[in-house]
């Protein structure tokens, strides 16, 4: 049984006339008649009652027309959906992001993209930079929004924004009264920081600035999410260094202050070579002015 035969059957079943069905199919009547007879032989059932004047469906033919019509419609829809997915106008887009992106590029960027591609289902996941790189390389993520990513062959990186790093301090900390915080003064603090293996680029930037004091910081807690860092700072566990956009979070009991020398951090969108066709459109949406 071939798909062509099924479409021939549907045309005859709809027209109940071999001549009109042949015209609808842009073919001559004899091969259409032969094809329908072969289909009946393969199915082992008579689909049409034929006389010299009329063609009508048998009970088996009516049932088969109803059932096969659904199958052909699903097949046509699948072909149309396939074309949409290949063109990037449908399907799903798996997006990873560091928690700090949710205060800056992420909300508006996702909204702007969804307006352009309403049939693409976004699947955002909060992940560290290292986790995103691994998933991008494994083909399990289409776009990653990373903080200070390292260069990785096979991945394309686009700068989204650059911002200052700031000291994040308990509200009662003496440094909160200063206009800027120097590395030497910050070394006096117990520090809450991300694990190096999960955020290597960002932690390297922090350690470079701290290294100007030529001392090793006292890291008392290593945590994954920025919200957790803020909670520990508010509880007085220690101080931290985060992107300046953290001030938008308004955590009670936490004060931010500029760092001497204004070290900066960068947020990048990273794409896999095997990503969804609309991945670059998402990156463009993330880059637009906020």
Question: How are the SSEs placed, and which strands pair?
Answer:
Layout: H1 3-15, H2 18-24, H3 29-43, E1 48-50, E2 55-57, H4 59-87, E3 91-97, H5 105-116, E4 120-126, H6 129-137, E5 143-147, E6 155-170, H7 183-186, E7 190-193, H8 200-210, E8 218-222, H9 226-234, E9 240-243, E10 254-258, E11 264-272, H10 279-287
Parallel strand pairs: 3-4, 3-5, 7-8
Antiparallel strand pairs: 1-2, 5-11, 6-9, 6-10, 6-11
Helix pairs in contact: 1-2, 1-3, 1-4, 5-10
Organism: Pseudoclavibacter terrae
Family: Belongs to the LysR transcriptional regulatory family.
Protein name: LysR family transcriptional regulator
Number of domains: 3
Largest sheet: 7 strands, mixed
Radius of gyration: 32 Å
What is the string of SSEs from the N terminus onward?
HHHEEHEHEHEEHEHEHEEEH
**From the coordinates shown, what is the CATH architecture of the largest domain?**
3-Layer(aba) Sandwich
| Broad structural category | alpha/beta
CATH H-tier superfamily of the largest domain: Periplasmic binding protein-like II
Characterise the protein shown here.
It is a single chain. This protein has three domains: 3-87, Arc Repressor Mutant, subunit A (Orthogonal Bundle); 91-160 and 266-287, D-Maltodextrin-Binding Protein, domain 2 (3-Layer(aba) Sandwich), CATH 3.40.190; 163-264, D-Maltodextrin-Binding Protein, domain 2. By secondary structure, it is of the alpha/beta class. The two termini are 57 Å apart. The mean pLDDT is 88. 41% of the residues lie in helices and 23% in strands. The protein is built from ten helices and eleven strands. It is rod-shaped. Strand 7 (190-193), helix 8 (200-210) and strand 8 form a beta-alpha-beta unit. The strands form three sheets. Strands 3, 4, 5, 6, 9, 10 and 11 form a seven-stranded mixed beta sheet that branches. The chain has a two-stranded antiparallel ribbon with strand order 1-2. A two-stranded parallel sheet has the order 7-8.
């Amino acid at each position: 049984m071939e798909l062509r035969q099924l479409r021939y059957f549907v045309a005859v079943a709809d027209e109940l006339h071999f001549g009109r069905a042949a015209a609808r199919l842009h073919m001559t009547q004899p091969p259409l008649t032969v094809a329908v007879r072969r289909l009946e032989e393969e199915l082992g059932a008579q689909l049409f009652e034929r006389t010299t004047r009329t063609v009508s469906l048998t009970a088996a033919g009516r049932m088969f027309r109803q059932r096969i019509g659904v199958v052909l419609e699903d097949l046509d829809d699948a072909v149309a959906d396939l074309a949409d997915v290949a063109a990037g106008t449908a399907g799903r887009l798996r997006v990873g992001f560091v928690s700090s992106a949710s205060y800056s590029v992420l909300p508006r960027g996702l909204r702007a993209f969804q307006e352009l591609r309403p049939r693409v289902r976004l699947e955002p996941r909060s992940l560290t930079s290292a986790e995103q790189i691994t998933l991008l390389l494994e083909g399990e993520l289409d776009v990653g929004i990373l903080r200070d990513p390292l260069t990785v062959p096979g991945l394309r990186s686009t700068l989204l924004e650059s911002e200052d790093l700031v000291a994040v301090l308990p509200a009662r900390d003496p440094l909160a009264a200063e206009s800027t915080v120097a590395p030497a003064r910050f070394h006096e603090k117990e520090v809450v920081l991300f694990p190096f293996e999960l955020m290597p680029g960002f932690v390297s930037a922090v350690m470079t600035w701290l290294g100007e004091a030529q001392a090793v910081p006292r890291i008392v807690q290593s945590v994954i999410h920025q919200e957790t860092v803020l909670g520990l700072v508010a509880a007085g566990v220690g101080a931290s260094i985060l992107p300046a956009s953290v001030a938008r979070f308004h955590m009670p009991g936490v004060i931010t202050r500029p760092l001497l020398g204004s070290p900066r951090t960068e947020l990048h969108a990273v794409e896999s070579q095997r990503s969804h066709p609309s991945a670059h459109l998402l990156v463009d949406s993330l880059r637009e002015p906020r």
